[in-house]
């Protein structure tokens, strides 16, 4: 990090988030710089594996013990989930738990699905089962925190997302989700200062720290969209995956700035990437609907 950027971060810590809470006088023009990507194609390997697993379970069901059948159903459910077939996935996760009730990852998937459906009590029960079975599960605190966020239980969301952040402060997504929950809990200035502090103390060369720069005001949206968002793709990363994340967090930023129509466009674009496995894709529909409702309400007034 250069000294110019550090200086801006220190200024941001002092000023809080006045820029995020102000009402813009004109609609943002950054949509002209959008990178629109082709939807991610369904993975052929996943489809082949699905066919093989279905064939095995059909032909060898009587020979399989409960543990093996549970594992096969869980694996097939995770493949359905990756292909966006979440109803079929949910059926298989529930069946897997009938055979093998200690599958923490199956409960984790179910918790995510219940969050997407707005069935939060079921989601909390699922995540509590995950943590009972596997207290150090790598994603349970994130996913339970996100459930609390969408359930408007921001105190609970903050606790879980703080725990998730502390487990790996070098992960920029953890810093962003902690920030989003803290803003909603009602202390946006502290949230902004926390985010800037995380950037100063824990940043790496991970591309998503650029999203943090965007949120704290040391990178412009035009700069992010025109160059930064598409640079330095990892060998195992697609442009659709990168833009799914970019669109989602740009949408969240536009919400904070009160630009609801632009936010809705970004979330719709996140959905068009078809990166079904990403958290950002899972919740983009909820965010798009909420943004559109707010935009319509603003026009009605």
Automatic annotation (TrEMBL):
It holds the Pfam family TPR_8. One of its GO terms (cellular component) is plasma membrane. The keyword Chloroplast does not apply. Gene3D superfamilies: Tetratricopeptide repeat domain (1.25.40.10). PROSITE patterns: PROKAR_LIPOPROTEIN, TPR, TPR_REGION. Keywords: Cell membrane, Lipoprotein, Membrane, Palmitate, Repeat, Signal, TPR repeat. TPR repeats lie at residues 104-137. Homodimer. NCBIfam families: PRK11189.1 (NF008391). This is Lipoprotein NlpI. It comes from Pseudidiomarina terrestris.
